Amino acid sequence: MTQIFGASSTTEEVLSGVSLKGKRILVTGVSAGLGIETARALAAHGAHVVGVARNLAKAEGATAQVRADADHGGGTFELIGLDLADLASVRACADQLNASGLPFDLVIANAGVMATPFGHTKDGFETQFGTNHLGHFVLINRIAGLMRDGARLVNVSSAGHRFADVDLEDPNFEQTPYDPFVAYGRSKTANILFAVAFDVRHRARGVRATAIHPGGIMTELVRHMQDGAIEAMLAGINEQAAAEGKPPFQFKTIPQGAATSVWAGVVAEAEAVGGQYCEDCHVSKVVPNDQPISLVSDGVRAYALDPAHAEALWAKSEDMVGERFS
Fold first, then answer.
1. Terminal Cα distance for the chain, rounded
2. Do residues 103 and 92 lie in contact, with contact meaning Cβ atoms separated by under 8 Å?
3. Could you tell me the pTM of the whole model?
4. Which of 150, 218, 221, 271 could bridge across to 206 with cysteines, CB 3.0–4.6 Å?
């Protein structure tokens, strides 16, 4: 990591002077927001990017600039259908990728939902845990054999992991009253723990996994939030910031939000980010579980990086999806 980047760094700044020619990269969730920009930046620097999305018609229209920048930068871009909330679709996508036999240098698990009303995936899992974690858990484990020695996995998590640790006794809110942000927090903690456990399993061949927080960005992710909810949340954040002598919170642009995924995937040193949580293009400090932390403070909760906790989640996830992964 010879150059220092930060919260305001963009994808183009992070990738300045970087050639990705010959690299093959998978990005989930390329029909909106961060997924589009992540795919665009990588393809613009010469990578062959495979984008997956639930709504292919929407993704086709949304990725016109990705294709244009790929053509200009020497990269390529293709789309594959995938519904993370339907394990049959996940397995079919993995089968399609495995059938091609073409390896990946980087997988960015970017897709996700936030603060959805209470509901279930096609397989009966709580919507956010099932979509954000279990869908990616099955997809990535099923294509792990396609990841070259030295490849990386980047799981897009969130500072929202601070809302809640995973609940391995009641992952589907069968006994717990449903709260959309608690559910979101559980799923985002799961994204981090999955990266921790995946990193342990594959680091011997140089495959490293990390989780990242992109920052606060206005994207389609907020579509399930009620009117006024964002404003109320911001008011609380800014009140706390003022009390700490900090400036008001500012949203990142989409290129700034996608920068940490790109940085962790192709720029940062693998040994530095493997098994870690990153934000603002740096590895985050660990904050003890009993120490106060705000939504916009730096740091990752200790429970999200706990190796034993990661193994327990892995075992629970295998039980839930009915598959075993080494």
1. 31
2. no
3. 0.93
4. 150
Closest CA to 143 of 197, 205, 184, 100: 100
- Domains of the chain from N-terminus onward: 14-321 (3.40.50.720)
Instruction: Give the C-alpha distances (Å, rounded to integers) separating 252 from 4, 65, 287, 322.
Output: 18, 20, 23, 39
Q: What are the b/e assignments for 133-146, b being 16+ CB within 10 Å?
A: bbbbbbbbbbbbeb
In tens, the pLDDT along 127-141 reads 999 999 999 999 999
Is 178 marked active-site?
no
Tokens 């279990």 belong to: 134
Question: What is the rounded distance in angstroms from the CA atom of residue 256 to the CA atom of residue 237?
Answer: 20
- Strand ranges, E, within 246-326: 277-279, 282-283, 286-287, 300-301
* Pairing mode, strands 286-287 and 282-283: unpaired
What's the one-letter identity of residue 82?
L
As a whole number, mean pLDDT of residues 127-156 equals 98
Nearest to 215 by CA among 297, 149, 148: 297
Catalytic residue among 178, 184, 277, 303: 184
CA distances from 302 to 143, 162, 200, 285 (A): 29, 10, 17, 9
